[in-house]
């Protein structure tokens, strides 16, 4: 796994050969084909017509998009583990949905509670996570926001999280099981 | 089919109600982000799944496409809603607003 | 029978929109208003698909709902980026 790229720091020109900077290098052919397939599937679902004219328009538009921006959806340095990563991500989703459902019941109970102000104790906590890679950071931040009592306030590129928690109990739960789960996807 | 759809719609409405009441009742906007970010997402998921089930009840190709589009909206909301919540919280943090805390209220 | 369920669901959603509207109009800070508008927008997305089901034109209204969800997201991002360094955000001076 490559070290995280700090996009905000100025990079020295000599570091470019070693650093996995996917902006500089050319996107691979496989990434282009995958982007094309995703774009074309979205086109078919959105247009809903199967005659030759609309399909040809879709092929042209997806070709343009996949030529220009193939490296956004599938970054190069993570490309080799992509199928395994995707499968692990699909396996991660049901657990996430279960936690989301739990979180919603919790907040629903809080927002109808008549003496709500005594039950909540908002606080801001910071912690350093071991997760590396931009996509993993994004998925972990969004998972934190969707799960019980916590909202991500700020994420630094090196993995320092600032989290607003609604009570002390949910603040203690971080960074627990979820971090290990997300880390396992991208290892 | 219609029974499942109605149940999903009503449970989605319950989540929506909780979100709206929570937005009114919580003490500051960091706390208000919790119902706004979670309960609205869940309510939208429930109601739109109910409608997708209803659309699929007479099965044709165009009905399948419409249900797929509705699920596309759900996936889109699940990606963008935490991002929007994060953007609002980040704006408050950079502007220097501190969250409401019970201890500080008692000191005053 | 299903049309009636959709009709009353839509009316209930319209009534529910009044609660975030209070937050959007009288909210103490600008960010409260953004939260209110975001909540109204996500309810409108559900309401648009409901209207499509009521008028038997789901294919058309689903596209409108998708575009509305996108616009809602972009509006929230743009306004929160715009207000993050500006004055006029506080309900009271915070230099304690």
Describe, in short, the structure shown:
The complex is a heterotrimer of chains A (187), B (108) and C (96). Chain A is mainly alpha-helical.
What does the secondary structure layout of this molecule look like, with pairings?
The complex is a heterotrimer of chains A (187), B (108) and C (96).
Chain A: H1 29-47, H2 52-68, H3 70-73, H4 82-112, H5 116-119, E1 123-128, H6 134-146, E2 150-155, E3 160-165, H7 168-172, H8 177-185
Antiparallel strand pairs in A: 1-3, 2-3
Chain B: H1 2-25, H2 29-55, H3 61-95, H4 102-107
Chain C: H1 2-16, H2 18-26, H3 30-54, H4 58-83
Helix pairs in contact in C: 1-3, 2-3, 3-4
Radius of gyration of chain A: 21 Å
Mean pLDDT of chain C: 82
Task: List low-confidence stretches of chain A.
Answer: 1-24
Helix content of chain A: 40-55%
Number of H/I helices of chain A: 8
Structure classification of chain C? mainly alpha
* pLDDT < 50 stretches of chain C: 92-96
Strand content of chain A: 5-15%
Helix percent of chain C reads: over 70%
Q: Judging from the principal axes of the Cα atoms, what is the shape of chain A?
A: elongated
Distance between the termini of chain A: 7 Å
Task: Tell me about this structure.
The complex is a heterotrimer of chains A (187), B (108) and C (96). With 187 residues, chain A is mostly helical. Chain A has eight helices and three strands; from the N terminus they run αααααβαββαα. In chain A, α1 packs antiparallel against α2 and α6 runs antiparallel to α8. Chain A is elongated and about 65 Å long. Residues 1-24 of chain A have low confidence and may be disordered. Chain B contains four helices and no strands. Chain B has helices spanning 2-25, 29-55, 61-95, 102-107. Chain C has 96 residues and is mostly helical. Chain C has one domain (2-83). In chain C, α1 (2-16) packs antiparallel against α3 (30-54) and α2 runs antiparallel to α3. Chains in contact: A-B, B-C. At the B-C interface, α1, α2 and α3 of B face α1, α2, α3 and α4 of C.
Offer a few descriptive terms.
heterotrimer, A: 187 residues, mainly alpha, 10% strand, B: 108 residues, 85% helix
């Amino acid at each position: 796994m490559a070290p995280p790229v700090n996009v905000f720091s100025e990079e020295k020109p000599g570091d470019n050969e070693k650093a996995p900077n996917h902006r500089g290098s050319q996107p691979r052919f496989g990434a282009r084909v995958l982007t094309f397939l995703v774009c074309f599937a979205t086109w078919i679902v959105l247009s809903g017509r199967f005659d030759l004219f609309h399909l040809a328009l879709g092929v042209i538009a997806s070709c343009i998009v996949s030529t220009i921006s193939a490296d956004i959806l599938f970054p190069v340095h993570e490309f080799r583990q992509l199928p395994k990563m995707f499968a692990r991500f699909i396996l991660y989703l049901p657990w996430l949905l279960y936690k989301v459902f739990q979180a919603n019941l919790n907040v629903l109970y809080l927002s109808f509670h008549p003496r709500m102000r005594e039950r909540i104790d908002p606080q801001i906590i910071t912690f350093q996570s071991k997760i590396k890679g931009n996509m993993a950071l994004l998925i972990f931040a969004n998972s934190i926001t969707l799960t019980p009592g916590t909202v991500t306030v700020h994420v630094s590129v090196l993995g320092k999280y600032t989290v607003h928690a609604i009570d002390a109990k949910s603040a203690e739960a971080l960074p627990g099981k979820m971090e290990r789960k997300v880390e396992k996807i991208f290892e | 089919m219609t029974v499942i759809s109605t149940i999903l719609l009503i449970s989605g409405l319950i989540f929506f109600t909780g979100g709206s009441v929570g937005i009114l009742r919580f003490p500051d906007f960091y706390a208000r982000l919790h119902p706004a970010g979670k309960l609205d997402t869940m309510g939208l998921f429930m109601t739109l799944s109910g409608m997708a089930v209803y659309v699929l009840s007479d099965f044709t190709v165009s009905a399948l496409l419409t249900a797929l589009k509705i699920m596309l909206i759900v996936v889109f909301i699940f990606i963008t809603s935490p991002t929007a919540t994060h953007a609002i919280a980040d704006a408050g943090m950079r502007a220097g607003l501190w969250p409401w805390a019970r201890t500080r209220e008692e000191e005053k | 029978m299903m049309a009636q369920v959709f009709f009353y669901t839509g009316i209930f959603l319209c009534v529910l929109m009044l609660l975030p509207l209070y937050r959007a109009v009288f909210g103490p800070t600008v960010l409260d208003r953004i939260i209110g508008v975001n909540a109204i927008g996500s309810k409108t997305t559900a309401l648009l698909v409901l209207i499509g089901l009521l008028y038997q034109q789901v294919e058309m209204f689903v596209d409108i709902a998708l575009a509305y969800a996108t616009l809602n997201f972009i509006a929230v991002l743009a306004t929160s980026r715009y207000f993050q360094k500006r004055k006029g955000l506080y309900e009271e001076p915070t230099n304690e």
